[in-house]
Write a structure and sequence with these properties.
Strand content: 15-25%
Structural class: alpha+beta
Number of helices: 12
Largest sheet: 5 strands, antiparallel
Low-confidence stretches: none
CATH topology of the largest domain: Aminopeptidase
Number of strands: 18
Number of domains: 2
Distance between the termini: 20 Å
Radius of gyration: 23 Å
Oligomer: single chain
């Protein structure tokens, strides 16, 4: 399963045309190169190779591409699972992302498999004030000024780290310092790590709060009496809406009782698949043939993918591809939804071969 939609771009920040699809120095440049048109395309090519070869699977092999993943999946994977179950029902699902090469402490390579993802608790915070003439701002109840303080408090908020099984297994599997599984040490270590790894390590072990959109005010010379602030909150396994309300109360302090909080949608809790499955074993066998000295490690993605809809329907769902050593963990993390997104041609070839061989390994 892949998605065909991409997020918007700020073209001024790109070194090359973000929608050009140009091949430069062995890399394909463009929005979606890593998220996730690389995998959507290589899955399609692998599927075509299998069909053209006369492959007859032991079971059913389905290729699914949807166009709504970057907008909550409501009219893509969610719609298909809820309304076209017979067409897409599966015991095992492969989607984004995973499969980049991480050097391990024993000299080998580890390939992360996305076994789960964080949940989300997107919400709108409405801040009230009292209107007045902007030429007399002294001691006014300005909703925008209050909202600015709320933004500051959310940005400064530091919830306690939570070490879950998937994170612990990843750290131990790669052989990274044990301090990365110590809640008392983790935050300090994140300050020392390269930015891509630091963001991943922090987001994998904390509920996160990111104010992203603000609306308010009616006219330049009117003190605003209402401001809406949208906040992207991501939750760890086991965290529920009540936990997040408690964290918001902690973050906002004395301002919390004066804020109206409205969640966008139904609660979207974290989802996890087990790692002891035939699909896991198949991915390990096949990827080991293409990347010598490699083995798999479980990983939690901090963004949302369409895998969550299938996990909730009873499927085992993993995120996995196969990438060359040219695409580092650091680059992989910073290019998601960022500038200068690109993927090397060798990685596209590896992923195509991976998907074709996994189908043969698992279903033949």
């Amino acid at each position: 399963m892949g998605h065909t939609d991409v997020v918007p771009v700020s073209a001024d920040g790109w070194s090359n045309d973000p929608f050009g699809g140009d091949i430069i120095d062995g890399e394909v440049w463009g929005r979606g190169a890593v998220d996730m048109l690389n995998l959507t395309a290589t899955m399609a090519v692998a599927f075509k190779h299998l069909a053209d070869s006369g492959f007859r699977p032991k079971g059913t092999l389905v290729y699914l591409a949807v166009a709504d993943e970057e907008n909550l999946g409501t009219w893509g994977a969610k719609h298909m699972v809820e309304n076209e179950r017979d067409a897409v029902s599966a015991d095992y699902v492969i989607t984004e992302s995973g499969g980049f090469q991480i050097p391990a402490s024993d000299g080998g390579l580890r390939l992360p498999v996305i076994v789960g993802e964080k949940g989300s608790y997107w919400c709108r915070l409405r801040i009230r004030g009292t209107p007045g003439h902007a030429s007399q701002p002294y001691r006014t109840d300005n909703a925008l000024v209050t909202a600015a303080e709320i933004v500051r408090r959310l940005a400064d908020y530091r919830p306690v780290a939570t070490i879950h099984d998937t994170w612990r297994s990843f750290i131990e599997g790669v052989g990274l310092p044990a301090d990365l599984t110590d809640p008392a040490r983790l935050d300090a270590l994140c300050e020392e790590l390269p930015i891509g790894m630091a963001r991943q390590a922090h987001a994998c072990t904390h509920a996160t709060f990111a104010p992203t959109i603000i609306h308010g005010g009616t006219k330049t010379n009117v003190i605003p009496d209402s401001v809406d602030l949208e906040v992207d909150i991501r939750t760890l396994p086991g965290q529920e809406g009540s936990d997040l309300q408690g964290m918001l109360a902690e973050a906002l302090g004395d301002l919390y009782p004066h804020v109206e909080i409205t969640p966008f949608d139904d609660e979207n809790e974290s989802t996890i698949s087990p790692a002891d499955t035939p699909l896991w074993d198949s991915l390990g066998r096949v990827s080991g043939r293409f990347v010598e000295g490699s083995s798999l490690v479980p990983f939690l993605t901090v963004g949302a993918t369409d895998a969550r809809f299938f996990r909730r329907a009873g499927s085992v769902a993993y995120g996995f591809g196969l990438f060359s050593s040219r695409l580092t963990f650091e680059d992989y993390g910073t290019m998601f939804h960022g500038h200068d997104e690109r993927v090397d041609v060798e990685s596209l070839l590896l992923s195509t071969r991976l998907f074709e061989e996994v189908a043969r390994d698992l279903l033949q």
